[in-house]
Amino acid sequence: MSLIEFRDVSERYIKGSTPAIDNVSFEIDNGEFVFITGDSGSGKSTIIKLLLRELVPTKGTITVAGMDLGKMKHRKIPMYRRKVGVVFQEFRLLEDRNIYDNVAFAQRVTEVKPKIIKKKVPAALSLVGLAQKYKSYPNELSGGEQQRVAIARALINEPALLLADEPTGNLDPSNSWEIMHLLEEANERGTTVVVVTHNQEIVNEMHKRVITLNKGVIVSDVKGGEYL
After folding, report:
1. 81-108 per-position pLDDT tens digit
2. Nearest-CA neighbor of 155 among 134, 117, 125, 181?
3. What are the strands of the beta sheet with 161-165, ordered from one edge?
């Protein structure tokens, strides 16, 4: 069953300009792990922004879990985003809060009861191997550790969908593989994972489905594929 469906989607940032993506169509099933690849400017980040409802498609329809994002009312967007886990290249942690509070923040905004937060935050930090560092602040952690915190924060609300936008872009190869293994484990627990990346080595080694974009159009969509 499809979790995500793009039907003939185009996005123009400026009316009359060259589209960032042009007549893009694909489906992603529940429980899939998918890479979206392509050179800079190919449209990868536009797809992430559309899935987060930061943009509305100029043309076509996007549905996630049966919801038409283009027709979604503004008051429903925050609730939708809380159901989608997101990991960014820049980590985006709150520098003035410790690791525990960074992860707990994702639950507090959804008004989860404190006693549940006290159980779930340590469990999420354990999943990413940082249970002992819950009192540390982001500036006391390595880049790889900060990204693991970001993954814990993205997963704590048990999202059906996890979006990762260049999650290894600021990391060395060793930490990059740790992060990808954590995303793979999340996928094995049932979360649908979509990773935007230009890391050719990771894409080729993991043998997942690969959607490749070039100048806003899909040029390849292969299961067990490689970076073209």
Report:
1. 988 999 988 888 999 999 999 999 888 8
2. 125
3. 84-88, 161-165, 192-196, 33-37, 209-214, 217-222
Domain borders along the chain are 94-158
Amino acid identity of residue 59, one-letter, is: K
Q: How far is CA 15 from the centre of its chain?
A: 28
Tens-digit pLDDT profile for residues 175-204: 999 999 999 999 999 999 999 998 999 999
Residues in the chain, pLDDT under 70: 228
Dihedral of alpha carbons 10, 53, 103, 160, sign:
negative
- DSSP code of residue 69: G
Q: What value, to the nearest 5°, has the Cα angle with vertex 132 and ends 127 and 137? A: 100
The enclosing H or E element of 217 equals strand 217-222
Residues 75, 82: Cα–Cα separation, whole Å? 13
Whole-number pLDDT of residue 14: 85
Choose among 120, 188, 181, 112: nearest CA to 147. Answer: 181
Written as one string, the DSSP assignment of 153-190 is HHHTT--SEEEEESTTTTS-HHHHHHHHHHHHHHHHTT
For the question of whether the overall pTM of this predicted structure is more than 0.85, the answer is: yes
| Token pair of 205 as six digits | 């080694």
